[in-house]
């Protein structure tokens, strides 16, 4: 999605500067069809304009810092909410979604934990436009246009997406309801097991991973309620129990990998298990049992 930043581009002296994967965004999305989903989008940026006296469009260092800072501040580690979607209600800090299948999701938390869009649904095209409209005006005057492209990491093997929050994290991971799209790999006795990893990925698509000590109750509609107090404020989430996984410890990627390894160990007690779980793109944890 492209947005003019200021001047009209010239003909022959216009150049493009690109930064692939200037940042990635890990967020949760409320959607009237799927309910809750976790996303990781890589962001590629292209700047169009004229060189200044230094021979540059924009020094890569400050350009990357500005783009990453703004994109991260606007949508990273937030729950993205399409305000105009059927079934969405905003009532102060309480956001409720009644999805098409009747399932209800409640979120309550500080404003910093969400991003609200005047839209019926959220996808990468909408986010590209929304972000460029806000960031392009901050670019230097010799930049005529900004193009941002959001893409998912190419993952050929098993992968899943989930939402969570890490209440003790000193950064934005404390925000309940942010999410990730992740690879998952499992090996038994050193042999890759894509089918087993795929079964886990299928089972875990779109789950919310909570911590047992934050589980408050299961209501009469069969929804688990979670709540915690973090540095940025009080967060609470309610979602169908069938879409929750509850861990004994915080839902870090270490604990997620270890949870899967522990479950597999029951089924394969005499074998060596290795679970390589990712959190978003390019990072994660390996848990080994046996
Ligand atoms: N050892 C661990 N550290 C962190 C975990 C974890 O599970 N184990 N989890 C998180 C957060 O959940 C988070 O979503 C990761 O975000 P962040 O640290 O911001 O990672 P990015 O790749 O997005 O980093 P940038 O600096 O924004 O590029 C945090 N730590």
Automatic annotation (TrEMBL):
Q: Which family does it belong to?
A: Belongs to the PTPS family. QueD subfamily.
Q: Does the keyword Metal-binding apply?
A: yes
The organism encoding this protein is: Salinisphaera aquimarina
Q: In which pathway does it act?
A: Purine metabolism; 7-cyano-7-deazaguanine biosynthesis
Q: Keywords, A to Z?
A: Lyase, Metal-binding, Zinc
Segments spanning the bilayer are none
What InterPro entries has UniProt attached to this entry? 6-PTP_synth/QueD, 6-PTP_synth/QueD_sf
Whether Zinc counts among this entry's keywords is yes
Query: What catalytic activity does the UniProt entry give for this protein?
Result: 7,8-dihydroneopterin 3'-triphosphate + H2O = 6-carboxy-5,6,7,8-tetrahydropterin + triphosphate + acetaldehyde + 2 H(+)
Record protein name field: 6-carboxy-5,6,7,8-tetrahydropterin synthase
């Amino acid at each position: 999605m492209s947005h003019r930043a200021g001047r009209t581009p010239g003909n022959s002296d216009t150049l493009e500067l690109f930064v692939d994967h200037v940042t990635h965004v890990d967020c949760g999305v409320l959607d009237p069809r799927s309910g809750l989903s976790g996303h990781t989008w890589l962001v590629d940026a292209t700047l169009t304009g004229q060189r200044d006296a230094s021979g540059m469009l924009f020094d890569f260092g400050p350009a990357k810092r500005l783009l990453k800072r703004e994109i991260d501040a606007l949508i990273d580690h937030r729950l993205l909410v399409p305000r105009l979607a059927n079934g969405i209600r905003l009532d102060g800090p309480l956001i409720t979604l009644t999805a098409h299948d009747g399932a209800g999701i409640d979120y309550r938390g500080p404003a910093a934990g969400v991003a609200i869009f005047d839209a019926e649904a959220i996808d990468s095209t909408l986010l590209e436009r929304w972000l460029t409209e806000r960031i392009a005006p901050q670019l230097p005057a010799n930049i005529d246009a900004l193009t941002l492209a959001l893409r998912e990491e190419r993952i050929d093997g098993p992968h899943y997406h989930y939402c969570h929050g890490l209440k003790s994290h000193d950064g934005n991971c404390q925000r309940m309801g942010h999410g990730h799209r992740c690879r998952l790999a499992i090996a038994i006795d050193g042999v890759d097991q894509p089918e087993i990893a795929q079964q886990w990925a299928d089972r875990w698509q779109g789950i919310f991973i909570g911590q047992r000590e934050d589980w408050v109750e299961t209501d009469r509609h069969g929804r688990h309620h979670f709540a915690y107090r973090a540095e940025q404020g009080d967060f609470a989430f309610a979602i169908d129990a069938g879409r929750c996984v509850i861990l004994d410890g915080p839902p870090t990627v270490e604990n997620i990998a270890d949870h899967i390894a522990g479950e597999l160990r029951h089924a394969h007690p005499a074998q060596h298990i290795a679970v390589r779980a990712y959190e978003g793109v390019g990072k994660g944890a390996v848990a080994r049992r046996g």
